[in-house]
Amino acid sequence: MRVLAAMSGGVDSAVAAARMAEAGHDVVGVHLALSRNPQSYRSGARGCCTIEDSRDARRAADVIGIPFYVWDLAERFHADVVEDFVSEYAAGRTPNPCLRCNEKVKFSAVLERALALDFDAVATGHYARIVDTPDGSRELHRAVDPAKDQSYVLGVLTQEQLKHAFFPLGDTVKTEVREEAERRGLSVAAKPDSHDICFIADGNTPAFLSKQLGEAPGDIVDAQGNKLGEHKGTHGFTVGQRKGLRIGTPAADGKPRFVLDISPVDRTVTVGSREELAVARLTASKPRWCGPAPSSELQVKAQLRAHGEEVAVTARVEGDEVQVSFDEPTLAVAPGQAVVLYDGTRVIGSATIDSVERVAAQHA
Predict the structure, then answer these.
(1) Which residues of the chain have pLDDT under 70?
(2) pLDDT in tens, 30-67
C-alpha cells in the first residue's frame, strides 16, 4: 500500500512513519509547512512548523530510509484555521484550532492531494485507534494511553476519511514511543512535545487576539446587569474563565466569579458564581459523523474539551442539529467548542456547540 506519512518533526510522527515502513508499505514522508513565518524557531515545547521542525522531519525520514518532501499549505492553514480562530473569538465563541486543522487541512487538503497522487492512505502520529469491522467499515476509538488520547480532535473525520487513515501509535503509550525512537536512532527521541496553539508560539492567546482584533473596551457585569469592571475586548475571555477578570468589586459571598457569557455586539462580559456556570443542556450544529448518522435517541458519553473528562448525556439528532442533555449539570460549556460523542471507546461523531441552557435559568 502506498502511504503518505505526515511528519511534523516530532517524535510521534517519526515513529508512526517508521512503523508504516517496517510493515512493508511504500511510504513517503511529507512535512506540512503551515507557518507564514517559517524562519521563527520553536521555544521549548511551544510552536511548530518551523524550519527546525522541517529539518528534524527530514533527518528522521533519512534514518527511516523513505523519500521526503515539504508541502506548503500555509495559505490554506491561515484561511481555514487561523482566520477561523480569530473570527470565532470575535464572535464571542471558543474554537478548537487543532480540531479545525484536522478537518480542513490534514484530512481534507492533504488527503485529497494524496489520493490524487495515487496514495492509498495518510498516516499520522495521532494517539487514536482505527478498528476494522466485519462489514468493511472502520471505527475510530480512543487510544490505549488515556493521557495522550487525541480522539477528541479527530471526531470530525468521516467514514470515507477513516478508510484512508492510519494511526500507528494508538496501541502504544508515550514512554514506549520515545524508547522506540531511541532504538531506531531517531534524533527526535527526546524532543519536547508541542503544547498550546501551534501558531501562537509564545502561548499568549489574548495578546495574539488583541493584535489581530484591536481593543474594543466594554463592561464586565453580573447576571443582574450591575457593572463590576471594564475590559479591553471580549476576545480576551472564554466561558468558564476565572483568572484575569480584574474585577475590583468582590462578590458578596467572597467566592470567585467566572465568565458566564460573552456578547461582542454590546461589548459585555457577564460573570457569576460557579453555580451559575452549570449547564443542563446544549444545542450543537454542523455535525460530523464517523459512521452513519444516529437515527434514534442515544444514551452515551460526551467530551467537551481536548483534555476534558467524559460525561454522561442523552443525545438526539434533529437534522443538522444535535440536542444534548447532561445527566448531571456540567460546568464551563462554551459556544464554539466541539461536543464529541462516544459509545464506550468508539467515537460516534462531533458537532459545534451553538448555545447552552443553564440550570440557573431553569429555576429563575
Answers:
(1) 36-49, 195-196, 361-364
(2) 999 887 665 543 444 445 567 788 899 999 999 999 99
User: Residues 109, 72: contact at Cβ < 8 Å?
Assistant: no
Residues 6 or more apart whose CB falls under 8 angstroms from that of 168 comprise 15, 16, 19, 20, 123, 125
- For the annotated catalytic residues, the residue numbers are 101, 198
13 in a known ligand binding site: yes
3-state secondary structure of 333: coil
Does 10 count as an annotated binding residue? Answer: yes
Q: Would you tell me which CATH number, out of the four given (2.30.30.280, 3.90.1170.50, 3.40.50.300, 3.30.70.1130), belongs to the domain 215-276?
A: 2.30.30.280
pTM summary value: 0.91
Domain range list for the chain: 2-183, 215-276, 278-362
**Which CATH class name applies to 278-362?**
mainly beta
pLDDT for res 308: 87
Question: For residue 363, what pLDDT is reported?
Answer: 57
First vs last C-alpha separation in the chain: 60
Q: Is 254 annotated as a binding residue?
A: no
- 6 annotated ligand-binding residue: yes
Domains 2-183 and 215-276 share a fold: no
Q: Please tell me the class of the 2-183 domain.
A: alpha beta
- Residues 6 or more apart whose CB falls under 8 angstroms from that of 289 comprise 158, 159, 348, 349
State yes or no: 154 annotated in a binding site: no
According to DSSP, the residues that pair with 284 across neighbouring strands are 322, 353
What is the four-CA torsion angle of 112, 117, 123, 126, rounded to 10 degrees?
-30
